[in-house]
Structure formats: C-alpha cells, structure tokens
Design goal:
The chain is an all-alpha fold. It has 2 domains: 64 residues, no CATH class; 52 residues. Helices cover 58% and strands 0% of the residues. It contains 6 helices and no strands. α3 runs antiparallel to α4. The longest helix has 27 residues. The chain is elongated and about 65 Å long.
Length: 122
C-alpha cells in the first residue's frame, strides 16, 4: 500500500481497479481483482483461483442463461410490480381496508405496510 497520510483519521482509503494491481497489492485483494479482470474479457482460467467464493461465482456465471438485457428487463419489471403493489396498498389503506387483507392481496409484509407512507412517493 502506498500513499500519503492526511493525518485526519486512522483509516486507510484504497482505490481498487482490476486493471492496475501489482506485487504490492495485498493477496486478499489481488485474487479478486484478477478474477474481475478475467471475467471482463470472458476468458477465465479457473485453475488460477483458490478462493472458494470466487470459484462459486464462476460456477454461477456458467449456469446463468440470462443476457445482460434480459437481466435488466427482469429488474425493471420487479420494480414496476413493487411500485404497483405499494400504490394499490396505499389506496386500500385510504378506504379503510384491514392491514391483514391488504397484505394478503398485495403480498407486502406488515412491516412494509407500516413503512408505506414513508417509502411510497406519488
């Protein structure tokens, strides 16, 4: 690790970039940075890695059949459904329906329902 102390706090800030690691990069960071760099070019030599979590991620990537666009579409769809559920729940609350019924219909939890006025924006 290199850098100059600011003398303000005892913490160390580390900027990580998968393209710029060297022999001074701590081992715990180096293997992760190498894995990120390898995954960016799509050519991963798994025998170079020993951290179980990294190997698990590579296995997950192999099994993943979604394209980046499909994944984005799924995330957007999830958030739209969540927003709609919250909107419906707020309307149901406004007409005085029971929290139990609202949770059953919208699939929101009681805790989500309690936080609804704070988290939902029109």
């Amino acid at each position: 690790m290199q850098g100059n102390s600011l003398g303000e706090i005892q913490h160390r800030i580390i900027f990580l970039c998968p393209k710029y690691w060297n022999e001074k990069t701590p081992d715990g960071y180096r293997e992760w940075l190498c894995a990120i760099d390898d995954s960016l070019d799509g050519k991963v030599e798994e025998s170079n890695y020993h951290v179980p979590e990294i190997l698990k991620i590579f296995e997950h990537i192999k099994r993943d059949v979604l394209t980046p666009d499909e994944r984005t579409d799924l995330i957007e769809e999830y958030h739209l459904e969540e927003k709609l559920s919250r909107k419906v729940a707020k309307a149901m609350l406004a007409v005085g329906l029971s929290e139990e019924l609202i949770c059953k219909v919208t699939e929101l939890t009681p805790a989500q329902l309690q936080n609804l006025p704070e988290t939902y924006d029109e």
